[in-house]
């Protein structure tokens, strides 16, 4: 697998007297010279619009096997579950007084615009677990699969883990006012 990165990254820490931010990331060229402005943490909201929303029901079989002649130790675990998936597009504004084009996102170390954003909403196992949210991203890469080089685009996904009761509200077709997904 070969990642398609044009420049390296370097973390820059700031003096504690600096009031605006504590750290930044800079891109560095092959000679080790800074090739970008300081990329500072963004502490405000960035918006996305969800498209192509779907509820996915799945059954996953995990097989755990010991030695092939030890049939007593073989175990299969079957997991049934649901998740919500959506494609995301950067939000823009048609507001006459505050028009705004959609924000453009680029993967660190490249000049490519990221076009693939996803949202995945997953129910936690039980109500006692803490809800969470995180982002996962990877730069484009080329991989040899079955003797053919395949190209995979830059990608960012947001994963939200919610309590089972919250997840049920999102997909409940009998409660349209609370439902994230409307089924017809």
Low-confidence stretches: none
Estimated helix fraction: under 10%
Beta fraction? 35-45%
Overall shape: globular
Largest sheet: 5 strands, mixed
| Total helical elements | 1
Decide which structural class fits the backbone.
mainly beta
Terminal residue distance: 43 Å
Count of discrete structural domains: 2
How do the SSEs run, as a string of H and E?
EEEEEEEEEEH
Count of beta strands: 10
Describe the protein.
With 184 residues, the chain is mostly beta strands. The chain has two domains: 1-42, no CATH class; 45-171, no CATH class. It is built from one helix and ten strands. The strands form three sheets. The protein has a five-stranded mixed β-sheet, covered by helices on one side. β8 and β9 form a beta hairpin. The chain starts with a strand and ends in a 13-residue tail after the last helix.
Provide key terms for this protein.
2 domains; 1 helix; mainly beta; 3-stranded antiparallel sheet; 184 residues; 5-stranded mixed sheet
Give a short synopsis of this structure:
The chain is 4% helix and 43% strand.
Question: Helices and strands in order, then pairings?
Answer:
Blueprint: E1 2-3, E2 8-13, E3 23-28, E4 48-64, E5 75-90, E6 116-123, E7 132-138, E8 141-145, E9 148-152, E10 155-162, H1 164-171
Parallel strand pairs: 6-10
Antiparallel strand pairs: 1-8, 2-3, 4-5, 5-6, 7-10, 8-9
